[in-house]
Design goal:
By secondary structure, the chain is of the alpha+beta class. It folds into 2 domains: about 35 residues, no CATH class; about 130 residues, Sandwich (Immunoglobulin-like), CATH 2.60.40. It is about 20% helix and about 35% strand. The strands form 2 sheets. Strands 1, 2, 3, 5 and 8 form a 5-stranded antiparallel sheet that branches. It has a 5-stranded mixed sheet with strand order 4-10-9-6-7, with no helix packed on it. A hairpin with an 8-residue loop joins strand 6 and strand 7. The longest helix has 24 residues. The protein is elongated and about 75 Å long. The two termini are about 30 Å apart.
Length: about 190
């Protein structure tokens, strides 16, 4: 296999690879994907997998116990009744098809600005965070929470593709073409 073919194969496989879950940090608040708006107010969401100090946003790297932290960034927001409910749904983020409540906090004011919850999340299921702000005409934020496939499961199709491409390239290089062109092991004499 030539170096060029190998490089092309590596580039192809890299583009097919699983998406990684990256912890956030060091990002300006305007660019932080963990920051969401509820009307004119701003809230920051962070998830921590048990046993890990790594912060995640809306995509969790694996099934298991998770600590969810909702930080009310605007001080005015901290005086308003705020409720949080994390639910499992039958579809991505569809609050009208709630299967069960994973964790919740009743609406009340949070002077410190921090609401924390604990829940267990499983791969292959859909979840949503429902944050309600205010009394009379509450504002509601609905945000999907996703548990990604374990890396081993994502790599299996990629590994199969590598084996298939390697076998095909090996067959093409070792096969004698009928017209005696490239790929032929011996030259044609005429």
């Amino acid at each position: 296999m030539s170096i060029t073919t190998l490089r092309l194969l590596i580039a192809l496989l890299a583009s097919l690879g699983p998406s990684s879950v990256y912890a956030h940090g060091g990002v300006a608040i305007e660019s932080d994907e963990c920051v969401v708006r509820i009307g004119k107010f701003t809230m920051h969401f962070t998830a921590y997998q048990s046993g890990s100090g790594t912060e995640y946003c809306w995509e969790l790297p694996a099934s298991g116990e998770v600590i969810l932290v909702f930080d009310l960034l605007d001080t005015a927001m901290r005086t308003k009744p705020t409720g949080v409910r994390v639910v499992e749904t039958t579809d991505e983020g569809d609050s009208e098809s709630i299967v069960r409540t994973v964790a919740s906090r009743e609406p009340k004011s949070y002077p410190t600005g921090t609401i924390d919850l604990h829940g267990t999340f499983e791969t292959g299921k859909h979840y949503a965070a429902l944050v309600t702000l205010g009394d009379a005409k509450p504002q509601v934020l609905k945000a999907p929470i996703q548990v990604l496939e374990p890396p081993g499961r994502q790599l299996a199709p990629v590994a199969a593709a590598v084996v298939l491409v390697t076998v095909i390239l090996g067959l093409l290089q070792g096969r004698r073409l009928p017209f005696g062109g490239r790929g032929s092991r011996r030259s044609r004499k005429g």
